[in-house]
Design brief:
- The structure is a homodimer of 136-residue chains.
- Chain A is mainly alpha-helical and 136 residues long.
- Helices cover 61% and strands 3% of the residues of chain A.
- Chain A has a two-stranded antiparallel sheet.
- The interface between A and B is large, with 56 and 57 residues.
Chain lengths: 136, 136
DNA sequence: GTTGACCCTCCTGTTACTGGAGGCTTTATA
DNA sequence: TATAAAGCCTCCAGTAACAGGAGGGTCAAC
């Protein structure tokens, strides 16, 4: 059993955030010490990690709650689970496209800069034809 | 010149959000009609699109402001631009890794569900050895 | 010439935290 | 063993980035 600080170190989530997730019932502490300190086990840390990634890609707390419940609710028809999960996956695919576009935009910016002191980096002109029309 | 509504349609950003970006000076309207209506040109729409993607991946408004200024400030040594841009790219690489992990987690969940009514989808057990140890 | 779709500003509300005060508990140190 | 530092608690206030809505002007169309 880990203290909240240890769980924080393991997941890279701030202590405050972990406390918040417990408070709103998203990822509850596994237990408490007699003094009232929160305790977390491996499984809670897994959930925290999962939530962290999902939150990073703009799944709301409520959506995270739903996804976690999919993982846990064995009484739920797997048909439902599959349907919901696939729709989330479609979202992630779009995210992946956008992430790729953004990365390209920044990479182009970095490449245009020779790295010397010449003060000229007018990248917006370059992709002003649109994010995906960068093959000129 | 586009109205705020047209800019909204072109960028898929809510009108409210575009108004907000103007208000905080992130992406200002190109001009105003005599009646005070905001006007946007192609370049503003480009910026809005860029900000949209950057925001989606958790760059703050202030970071977006900085990135946009890199694009625009021709008086800035390209050395600086390159340095800052590369550090943002490193962040994006981490995002990409996390996005991949999350996608894998959800895909595993979807695959485990045969899609019939059998109510058993205990995916957390499967990756409880860690997000990257899913080759069991 | 008025109806309906847009636009404006201003103000309040929401989500998901973040920081800090005030006050126990546990651990390291003298 | 005393005490100081570090860690934990609750509670409350603040922040970022919007979103909703009131109240009211504007513009194209019938």
């Amino acid at each position: 059993m880990l203290t909240i600080n240890d769980a924080s170190k393991r997941t890279n989530l701030p202590v405050k955030t972990i406390r918040y997730y417990d408070e709103v019932g998203l990822v509850m502490a596994t237990g408490r010490t007699p003094a009232g300190y929160r305790l977390y086990d491996d499984r809670s840390c897994q959930k925290l990690g999962f939530v962290q990634r999902a939150r990073q890609f703009n799944f709301s707390i409520e959506e995270c709650r739903e996804l976690l419940s999919l993982y846990e609710d064995h009484g739920r028809p797997s048909r439902d689970v599959k349907k919901i999960t696939l729709s989330k996956l479609a979202l992630l695919q779009r995210q992946l496209d956008d992430l790729t576009t953004l990365t390209l935009e920044l990479q182009t910016l970095a490449n245009q800069c020779t790295g010397d002191d010449r003060p000229d980096c007018p990248i917006l002109n370059n992709f002003s034809a649109g994010p995906l029309a960068s093959e000129a």
